[in-house]
Amino acid sequence: xxxxxxxxxxxxxxxxxxxxxxxxxxxxxxxxxxxxxxxxxxxxxxxxxxxxxxxxxxxxxxxxxxxxxxxxxxxxxxxxxxxxxxxxxxxxxxxxxxxxxxxxxxxxxxxxxxxxxxxxxxxxxxxxxxxxxxxxxxxxxxxxxxxxxxxxxxxxxxxxxxxxxxxxxxxxxxxxxxxxxxxxxxxxxxxxxxxxxxxxxxxxxxxxxxxxxxxxxxxxxxxxxxxxxxxxxxxxxxxxxxxxxxxxxxxxxxxxxxxxxxxxxxxxxxxxxxxxxxxxxxxxxxxxxxxxx
Length: 293
Ligand SMILES: Cc1cc2nc3c(=O)[nH]c(=O)nc-3n(C[C@H](O)[C@H](O)[C@H](O)COP(=O)(O)OP(=O)(O)OC[C@H]3O[C@@H](n4cnc5c(N)ncnc54)[C@H](O)[C@@H]3O)c2cc1C
Description:
Distance between the termini: 61 Å
Shape: globular
Bound molecules: flavin-adenine dinucleotide
Strand order of the largest sheet: 4-5-10-6-7
Structural class: alpha+beta
Number of helices: 12
Strand content: 15-25%
Low-confidence stretches: none
Radius of gyration: 19 Å
Number of strands: 14
Number of domains: 3
């Protein structure tokens, strides 16, 4: 049973921040409700005031600029991202990620902002945005700040968002030349959350043979999505080989910090990390190489 609450609707960012400020002693922001309503139904969250930001149209946008890159407003739904020709052209990995995220119904309601703020370590957008070197813009009535996605997630279902703050947008810089970004999750039920997920960004040198930069992110393998920084170091400066991929898989499974749950044991999750890392690094490498003339 959902406990009674006072429903308040905001139509602008200013209204949302005012309402939050007025009810800061006991409130929760709701957008698509795809994650929050489950927690409310289970009685895990029972706010006195529910502040609905789904109608804040000024946060519903996808914009691209060659210099600044892509900006996605917080109330933009997964489905809008998935169907955007602009996203398909500039950031195809996002379309692939969205096509495999939940059902169409959930993607029609669930938003990018809601997904990130829910802070689920098995969420799909977080690892992909991190691999893309993304940032988030956050605001409260008092201040606005911008943080990298690497800094945003703290722990299970916990982010850096402070009381009174809402997420406004995600910013993704343009993808550098000779770079490919790929993502895959391993799950038992199609489009369910991943038991393990991996996002990999590989940038090659001018020669098209050796790795100039790598951003490797693992989801569902720790209390929050993690950069596999030792694995990245291992790849940078190297040429691809079977041996290198093996080493990368081993290093990443050491870097992961998974738990056992009803879906998989800790050992199995570490194994999956190794398997997916090898696959994703090789795939990104091949796609980056195809861009070198
Ligand atoms: C059946 C099902 C399957 C799913 N499968 C997947 C999956 O495969 N992969 C995946 O990644 N997710 C999955 N999800 C989760 C869901 O898609 C996302 O969490 C959804 O995007 C949340 O967005 P929302 O707008 O519905 O958020 P809400 O439920 O409205 O809010 C979620 C949390 O974020 C906060 N919040 C929302 N917007 C903001 C904002 N702008 N600023 C500050 N705080 C905010 C809320 O207070 C709440 O704590 C699934 C959900 C369901 C129900």
